[in-house]
Amino acid sequence: MLLMSSQIEVYTEMSSFSARMVSAAQANDWDELVSLEKNVSSLRDTLTHGLDVDPLSSDEIQMKRTLIRRILDDDAEIRRHTEPWMENVRQFLEGAVTRRKVEHAYRL
Fold it and tell me: What is the pTM of this model?
């Protein structure tokens, strides 16, 4: 990953990854989604730990707001695709647990 020198560069990169995450979620490409999320997580860590924070100009503040809104919109779209899938997985796993309990209870 490239060294980022400004908050705006980091948020821009995060926004790029989040847009790609939307595409991965829409395509049910869970491996790609996880991979991209790792990149976003790393950038998020950069924002909280490894970035010298210089004061932003008013234009940069507006750009930062725009990028954060875009990232949040992407996150909502990603959740729209992943939450139903996660619910199906949850139900499948609950069914498997119930089945094992019945099998164990009746020694099947």
Answer: 0.75
